Amino acid sequence: MSDPGLTALEAEVTTCRRCPRLVDWREQVAREKRAAFKDDTYWGRPIPGFGDPAARVLILGLAPAAHGANRTGRVFTGDRSGDFLFAALHRTGFANQPTSVSRDDGLQLTDAWITAAVRCAPPANKPTPTERDTCLPWTVAELDHVKHVRVVVCLGAFAWDAALRLRAALGHPPPRPRPKFGHGALWYDDDNSGWVLLGTYHPSQQNTFTGVLTEAMLDDVLRTAREVAG
């Protein structure tokens, strides 16, 4: 990461202990491990954002997976959701390779920055409203450095809601009526803040295995993000 401000922010994010329930869970998972990863050293800390600091496209997820990013230390890395997402990013020209397995696997993003609304793996993948709000300032701080974002791709309804909260935290008035999440939903900001929200179903196994989200559907959303970003 070439931006010294982002490097300093990453050091702050990864040492955060503000949410006791999340701290306990992420560290318990890192100790007990999953049998398939028994020889791995789990990251077991909060997850910073990752990607191109000059990105015009921000990809916003929910939270790290317990045995994915909480194990590998990089957002959407080492789990099935990440496999699906990074393959799509590669097909659409945002990633230099279709896989993301570890922090040192050579993956690079172009014009995209990936982060999560909540930075620690939550029990049952369900952060509380307080945990969500406690994490929000980290994303605000990231956007002080990732300054060229034009489109926020929201992976699921939780991320859509988080993007609207993020927008409010940056000082913009709440949109009226409140834009509704949906796959392919596109909302243009009308107060000159320059943001467009673009919704897609989350690339969870539940969605991808059942065909709720297909490769073509996610590719279309990412291509739309590139077009809208200009």
In short:
The chain is α/β, with parallel strands linked by helices and 230 residues long. It is built from 8 helices and 6 strands.
- Arrangement of strands in the largest sheet: 1-3-2-4-6-5
Q: Please give the largest β-sheet.
A: 6 strands, mixed
Mean pLDDT: 95
| β-strand amount | 5-15%
Distance between the ends: 25 Å
CATH superfamily: Uracil-DNA glycosylase-like domain
Number of domains: 1
CATH topology: Uracil-DNA Glycosylase, subunit E
Shape: globular
CATH C-level name: Alpha Beta
Q: Please bin the fraction of helical residues.
A: 25-40%
Going by helix content, strand content and strand pairing, the class is: alpha/beta
Order of helices and strands: HHEEHHEHEHEEHH
Number of helices: 8
CATH architecture annotation name: 3-Layer(aba) Sandwich
Low-confidence stretches: none
Structure description:
The structure is a single chain. With 230 residues, this protein is an alpha/beta fold. It has helices at residues 4-13, 20-32, 69-72, 80-91, 129-143, 157-169, 205-209, 215-229, and strands at 50-51, 57-61, 112-116, 151-155, 186-188, 196-200. A 6-stranded mixed β-sheet has the order 1-3-2-4-6-5, sandwiched between helices. It is globular. The protein starts with a helix and ends with a helix.
Identify the notable features of this structure and list them briefly.
Uracil-DNA Glycosylase, subunit E; 230 residues; alpha/beta
Helix/strand layout:
Layout lengths: L3 H10 L6 H13 L17 E2 L5 E5 L7 H4 L7 H12 L20 E5 L12 H15 L7 E5 L1 H13 L16 E3 L7 E5 L4 H5 L5 H15 L1
Parallel strand pairs: 2-3, 2-4, 4-6
Antiparallel strand pairs: 1-3, 5-6
